Amino acid sequence: MGHTLRLLDLEADAVRGGSLAGAHLLVLGAGRTGEAVARFAHAAGALVTIHDSAASEKTQAIGAVLSPLGIRAVFGETAELAELFAQADLVVHSPSVTLGFPTVAPSVAGPLEAFAKAALALTGETGTPGKILISEPEWTSRLLGNRWRVGVTGTKGKTSTSALLAAILATDPQHPVAFGGNNGAPLIERALEMPENVRVVLELSELQLPTMYGAIDVGVYTNVTADHLDRHGSVESYRRVKQRLAGLINEAGTLIVNLDDPVTAAYAGEGRVATVTYRRDAPLPGGVGIVDGWIIAAGVQRSARYGGGAAATGPGGRIMPVGEIQMPGDHSISNVLAAVSAALVAGIAPDAIRKAV
C-alpha cells in the first residue's frame, strides 16, 4: 500500500528526507516531461507507473528504457486506468494532459476528473493529508522554493526571448542559470541540485500556465494574439490563460510588458506589482525603449534581491546600439528589448548585456 501525502511532502527538503518513499505515483503523459517526472520520483523512492494513451513506437521506446529501472509503463486505451488512479497517492500530469484540454483522451478524462474532485486544493493548507493532483511545472516550482525565477510567455517570441535572457544572465559568474519549460527541457530532475543563488528562466506556454500556482519573481510578456483556439475555444479564453502569468508574480516582483502590443500593454495598468514597460520608441519613465538608434533604459528598477535602486546604464541610459543585434528579423528587436528589461531587473551590467546580445 501507499501512504497519504501532504503538499509539503513535495517540497525539496521533504523529498530529500524520503517523503515519497513507498508512495504510489501515477505519471500521465510519456513525453520528455513525463519521463523526467518518472525518473525523479523513482529516484526519490516512489512506486511509479507512467501512462500514455498513445501506444506508439515512441512511447514503447520510453517504456523499454524505464521498465528496467522498476518503473511500470502502461500505454494505450486501457481499462486499467481506473485501478491506477485508485491506487495513486499522487498523480503528476504533463501540461498537455490537463483536465479540460481536448488533448486529453476520453479514456483518461473520466478517471482524471474523478481523481481531481477528491484531490487537495493546490492553494490550500500544505499540511493537510490527502490525494494530490499536480503538474510537472507546479511541482518543480515547489521544489525550487525561494530560488529566483523569471517566466517568459507570449504568442510569438517567447522561445527566442527566454533563450536570450538565459544567455545574458549567464554572463554573471556569481549566479548559475537554469533554463527550461516549454523549450522541452523539464527542470524537475535538476531541481534538488540547484544552488540557492541560481537564476531560473522558464519559457511558459498556454499549456503550462493553467497548471501553475506558485509565485515567480519576474513575468515577461512578448505579445498576445489569437492562437491555439482549438484548445481554448475563444480569443478571450486564450488571453485569460496568458494573463495568469501576471497573477503569479509575487508582491515584491516585477511585471515586464510590451507597450507595442495592446493586450499586454493593458496589464501595465493593474498596479499590483512593479512594472517595467518596453517599446520600439522612446522609453517611458522606468522602462526600456529606443532613441537615436540606441536601446535606452529610463530608470529601470533592479529587484530588491539584487540591491534595488536604478539599474546601471551607460551615459544617457544607453545599453547598446540597435545595429549590433545579431538575431535575424525585424521582430527580434522587440525580443531583445524584453530580454534587456528582465536582465536589468536582475542587475546585469550594460556591457555584459551588450556582449551577450
Describe the protein's architecture and organization.
The chain is α/β, with parallel strands linked by helices and 357 residues long. It has 2 domains: 5-135, 3-Layer(aba) Sandwich (Rossmann fold); 146-356, UDP-N-acetylmuramoyl-L-alanine:D-glutamate ligase. 31% of the residues lie in helices and 21% in strands. The protein has helices spanning 12-16, 32-43, 57-66, 81-87, 106-118, 136-144, 158-169, 229-232, 235-248, 262-265, 332-345, 350-356, and strands at residues 5-6, 24-28, 47-52, 72-75, 90-93, 129-130, 132-135, 148-153, 177-181, 199-203, 216-221, 249-258, 274-278, 288-291, 294-297, 318-321. The protein is elongated.
CATH topology of the largest domain: UDP-N-acetylmuramoyl-L-alanine:D-glutamate ligase
Uncertain residue segments? none
CATH level 1 name of the largest domain: Alpha Beta
- Judging from the principal axes of the Cα atoms, what is the shape? elongated
Average predicted local confidence, pLDDT? 92
Helix content: 25-40%
The domain count comes to 2
Q: Can you tell me the CATH superfamily of the largest domain? A: Mur-like, catalytic domain
